[in-house]
Design goal:
This protein is mainly alpha-helical. It has helices at about 1-10, 15-25, 30-50, 50-70, 70-75, 80-105, 110-145.
């Protein structure tokens, strides 16, 4: 919950963050630094020429914050809001087709698609653990009735 909210918040200053990365590009292997420089150039030029398009990244950031807030439900009442955890797990699985289909269509380098897929893998692990704990809590609650 906290991580996805932080991801959203850090998406707002996207150009500033990419500028910082561009100044430190030498710490990355060339195939990564070349890609980062292309992203930086693309975001900067788009922001300068068509700033309204950057409004889309603002909505992306907002969506991350709102999705993070959705997970307050399972925190308050895990059994009642187990569906949120299951929905999150489905979202993690759906990262893969998006990364490989849209990533291919958009010309995203393979290594970056793998990085994107890692978010699905990393995200599903704590969700799976929480889901198992909710299932156990559900069984305990049901046995007390």
């Amino acid at each position: 919950m906290i991580t996805i909210i932080l991801v959203g918040i850090t998406t707002f200053p996207l150009e500033l963050e990419l500028k910082w990365i561009a100044t430190h590009k030498d710490v990355f292997p060339s195939f990564i630094s070349d890609w980062l420089m292309a992203v930086y150039t693309g975001v900067t030029e788009t922001g300068n020429r068509f700033p309204f398009i950057m409004y889309g990244t603002d909505w992306l950031a907002f969506a991350h914050v709102i999705i993070g807030l959705l997970f307050i439900g399972p925190l308050k009442d895990p059994v009642k809001n187990k569906w949120v955890i299951e929905w999150g797990m489905i979202c993690c699985v759906l990262v893969f087709p998006l990364a490989f289909i849209a990533g291919t269509i958009r010309g995203i380098p393979f290594f970056h698609r793998l990085v994107d897929c890692s978010f699905g893998i990393i995200g599903i692990i704590p969700l799976w653990i929480v889901r198992k704990k909710i299932d156990k809590l559900e069984r305990i609650t049901a046995s007390k009735k």
